[in-house]
Amino acid sequence: MTGRHPPASPEPGRGDPHVFLSLRQITKRFGHVTALDHISLDIAEGEFLCFLGPSGCGKTTLLRVIAGLETPDEGEIRLQEGRLDAVPARQRNFGVVFQSYSLFPNMTVARNVAYGLECRGWRGTRKDERVRAMLELVHLADQSDKLPHQLSGGQQQRVALARALAPEPKVLLLDEPLSALDAKVREELRGEIRDLQRALRITTVMVTHDQDEAMELADRIVLMNQGVIEQIGRAEELYEQPANRFVAEFIGRMNVLSGFGSAGEAGLIGVRPEHLELIDGAAAGADAIVGRIEKSVFLGSVTRLTLRAGDQRLVVELRGKPANAVPGATLAVRIPPQSVHRIRGAPP
Amino acid sequence: MITPSAGASASAWRLDSDRLVTFALAAAVAVPLFLFVLVPLADILMLSFATPDGFGLGNYVRYFQTPKFSRVIANSLVVSACATVITVVLAYGFAYAMHRTAMRWKTVFGLIALLPLFAPSLVQALGILFLLGRNGLINRAFDLGIDVYGFWGIVIADVLYSFPHAYLILSAALAVADARIYESAQMLGAGPLRVFRTVTLPATKYGLMSACFVVFTIVITDFGNPMVIGADYNVLATEIYNQVSGQANFEMGAVIGVVLLIPAALAVVVEKLVSRRSFAVIGDRSQPLTVRPHRVADRVAFAYSLVVCGAILSIIGIVFLASFVTLWPYNLHLSLRHYRFEVQNGIEPLWTSIHVSLMAAGIGMAVTVAAACVLRRLGPWAAQALYFLSILPAAVPGMVLGLGYILAFNDPAHPLHFLYGTLLILAICNVYHYHAQGFLVATTSVNQISRVFDEASAVLGGGLLRTLARVTLPIIWPTVASVVVFFFVRSMVTLSAVIFLITPETQLAAVSVLLLDDSGNQNQAAAFSVCIMAVVGAALLAFHFALRWLVGRDVALVR
């Protein structure tokens, strides 16, 4: 486990006024599988955090631990000053939007949104006004008397969002809320979630396996793999300073090469496809990499080439459509020294 | 702006109200199961091992040495297996026709298929005798010399008797389906037979196994039909009655009871192994399957259903007819003379039965639905234990349970001795006699609800009781209603468990039918059966229309 976080403070969650939700050494096992392996994490108030990672990395389990739907085997959770470990899910007052449509099928849209309010003793016009306001927030005020199965997938998830936000939760937890929707609706709802979060300034944790989603929405991304956090940081940080090979290859594309490093240094280096510079083959110096183009894909703004140099393959992205970028042609590129990433971590 | 309140940030482990509710519910379900199932069973086991020389296998050795005993066991197994296969195959076809074709008359067929539920088990045998017996309609009219007494008589009677049980279970399995899977199969090029084999059959496997298990248990523990039509083809259920009631031989009764436990228990174990592999067929994103008309399939289904329903109707119908004629089949003039019941207490037992059945319906619904709901909240070990206790009664034949109740509650030292001889113990006996079936129906329904609803309710602040009241029960309430009907109907028509527990003051209707048949008054027995069927029929129709009226107004996910 690597990354700048967490700061090794002796009294986690205390002292730092920005820490709102704090996890310490959270471990969760299912039988012999360790889903979460001593996860520690601090979340600031109002922050939008994304748990990103391949399926099975533990991101959903971590979210469920925060929600109180799973009990961790070890570790502690704090919300501001208070320990959350023994607080059951229904007393945490965290809003959750599930991946699949979780609206109660026997209740109308309005009654679904009112449910959490009724659990907290809201009554009468106060409740009705809150329901109305929440439905307006997600632009569904006119659908309040419909049953869930009469709504589209996107509408259902917006109702789920309104339902989760209605009881003024302290934290909003989103478990891949968009993954069941089609692309256009997903994009639309993604924008809505971002706007809502910015407007309400509610501390939000979202689980996603979609890199674009995480990069667009998150203040910080928590990149997870096999039950551990590989790196925490802003999207640019993860992109520009990947902590290890997994991060480098998961966020964007990265050519991981051996034997190109400065003399005497062992290990791997990485270079982004778009950072490779095309050079004139005849004038190539010692730092040139000369290879044969195996594949050329025109993507509009860039052309992506697969270059074979010796026993290594390089992906090169060149702006526009270079004239001689056709399969079979020979090409020389160089790695600008400032673009070299040192890659830690064992090969996969 | 979201303002955090201090309320939720507890600093220490606290006694959560949900834990308390779960514990209280589990206790409310488990303690009576212990008192009214485990203790009576233990008493039977103890008695079966009790000999003049202390505990030992003496009773077993003595009984196993008689060739008659092994023949009775073989008889029971063969007749039950045979009836089970026939029933489940017939019922699957019928349920399929009802739910997966667009044939006509579905409502009528559905009602007719349930008719055998309206009647005590011996009514099928009675009807078969009126039709095929020595002095039956067929033999009288055509002089064919058909001898229906014995094996085939029991098989036919028990197929008719258990058919609606199998149909209801398979109906539940076939009624719900995810249209997307069927469409996927068709798009991948699967023909109707392949779709049936690879989609329909696997999706209904659980229901199919469950039906086999329930039918086998019903047949092997059935006592009324073999009493009436079995002649010298002895089965375990009739043998235990002869030993206990005829010869007051409680030790032998207990031995047969323990032996009778084995096949039923095996059936339960098999069912349990099967259900472990089952999974929720209906997810939270399923699309309900809509049936499209198909000329050939619909006609075949219609013809098939017509034959099945015709058979059921003719048996029930002939009992009606026989009750209203002067002397079947010699004098067919209409007469009401058989409705002057010349039996102990006259018509009184009918009112007693209604009283007991209403109590059983209320108690049975409460305990089985509570058990099904609380099961999901318990840890794996507690859930296993509760599940085992809940389905244990399925392995306990009515005759055995009834015998156990005599042994347990007739003992003045038993703290619940005051229950003995009351109507309440008859109701309790019926509840725990049929607990497993009611529980399985409730559990199947509860398990079809995606857990995500429970979780959504929890994170919104809903406690266990609120989740049950606002989410779970509103979704499964048609099932809850059907559990109520189930217990009422079973209690009205059951014979096997309560036959040991009745007193002259608490005589039940079904027992009157048996006594009348036993004393040679077949026509009066038919008339009393008609009274029971009328009560049960009225109750079922009332429920049926109430359900239809309410379902039309309340759209539920699980249909």
Question: How would you sum up this structure, described in words?
Answer:
The complex is a heterodimer of chains A (348) and B (559). By secondary structure, chain A is an alpha+beta fold. Chain A has a six-stranded mixed beta sheet, sandwiched between helices. In chain A, strands 13-17-14-15-16 form a five-stranded antiparallel beta sheet, with no helix packed on it. Chain A has a four-stranded antiparallel beta sheet with strand order 2-1-4-5, covered by helices on one side. The two termini of chain A are 15 Å apart. The N terminus of chain A is likely disordered. With 559 residues, chain B is mostly helical. Chain B has one domain: MetI-like fold, CATH 1.10.3720. The longest helix of chain B is centred in the first third of the chain and has 34 residues. Chain B is globular and about 60 Å long. At the A-B interface, strand 5, helix 2, strand 6 and helix 3 of A face helix 20 and helix 21 of B.
For the secondary structure, the number of strands of chain A is: 18
CATH superfamily (homologous) name of chain B:
MetI-like
Q: Please identify which CATH superfamily of the largest domain in chain A we are dealing with.
A: P-loop containing nucleotide triphosphate hydrolases
Strand % of chain B is under 5%
- The H/E string of chain A reads EEEHEEHEHHHEHEHEEHHEEEEEEEE
Biggest beta sheet summary of chain A: 6 strands, mixed
Supply the CATH class of chain B. Answer: Mainly Alpha
Low-confidence stretches of chain A: 1-15
Shape verdict of chain A: elongated
Provide the structure class of chain A.
alpha+beta
How many E-type strands of chain B? 4
C-alpha end-to-end distance of chain A = 15 Å
Percent helix range of chain B: 55-70%
The radius of gyration of chain A is: 24 Å
* Total of domains of chain A: 3
Strand content of chain A: 25-35%
